[in-house]
Design a protein that fits this description.
Length: 252
């Protein structure tokens, strides 16, 4: 059985606004196994993105603990958390946060050089990954503004993979893409998952969610349901029907 890569214990997140208190996550316990492709679904405002950020160390929970391979990262200082994320985590977001003043190759190199000071190794890694996602050498000196949404998102994924992270966090990675670009991005995520990297993804889209082997349904800051789909094959109606039935039972 695979080991546990990520764990939360009694995780809580509370916001204060206008003198009022809002509890977004409520005593949430969660284990994620090595190599899993876990998907978080739920209605808008259920706490999906908040959970993703708390588990990744991008935001601190109000209460509770987060463990990465049995080490409690909630005890880390901000500087130590930044080093932890740099070495262990890759991030893919709906809003593609590339540096507009840099070429797509340089966008990837910046991330790699934060961990590996051997520039030649980092350059070769970036070129290999860019080619792997279908971005050929003629495009490497383009700026983000010259790319389509799907191309830019693929650059974002390459950047997230530069340091060979153990865990990839994806927040609505296809939310602003057309169907063709969405499939290309999801195919790449499925491929790296099959190679052994763990993925935790937030989405509201069924066709995106069926890429996961485990679907968690979040309601009002609590996990209230789980659906196990098994490893992702080619999309088939049975897999989609199973997920659709689960979501219907959850009140989707």
């Amino acid at each position: 059985m695979s080991g546990i890569i990520l764990k939360s214990k009694m995780l809580c997140k509370t916001f204060f606004r206008g003198g009022l208190q809002y509890q977004i996550l409520k005593n949430l316990n969660l284990d994620i196994k090595e190599g899993d492709f876990t998907v978080i679904m739920g209605a808008s405002g259920s706490g999906k993105s908040t959970l993703l950020y708390a588990l990744s160390g991008m935001d601190r929970p109000t209460l509770g603990e987060v463990y990465f391979r049995n080490e409690e990262i909630t005890r880390y200082s901000n500087d130590r958390l930044a080093v932890f994320r740099r070495k262990n985590c890759g991030f893919v977001f709906q809003q593609i946060c590339l540096l507009n003043t840099m070429s797509i190759l340089d966008n990837c190199l910046v991330n790699g050089l934060l961990v590996n000071k051997n520039k030649r190794v980092v350059i070769n890694k970036a070129k290999e990954l860019l080619t792997q996602v279908g971005l050929e050498e003629a495009q490497w000196n383009k700026f983000p503004s010259q790319l389509s949404g799907g191309e830019a998102q693929r650059v974002g994924i390459v950047r997230s993979l530069m340091n060979e992270p153990s865990m990839i966090f994806a927040d609505e990675p296809t939310g602003s893409l057309n169907s063709g670009s969405s499939k290309a991005v999801l195919d790449l995520l499925s491929e790296v998952n099959h190679q052994g990297q763990s993925i935790l993804m937030v989405t509201h889209d069924i066709k995106t969610a069926i890429r996961g082997n485990r679907i968690l349904y979040l309601r009002d800051g609590v996990i209230c349901g789980e659906c196990m789909l098994g490893s992702f094959p080619d999309i088939n109606s049975k897999r989609q029907e199973q997920l659709t039935s689960f979501l219907t039972n959850m009140g989707w």
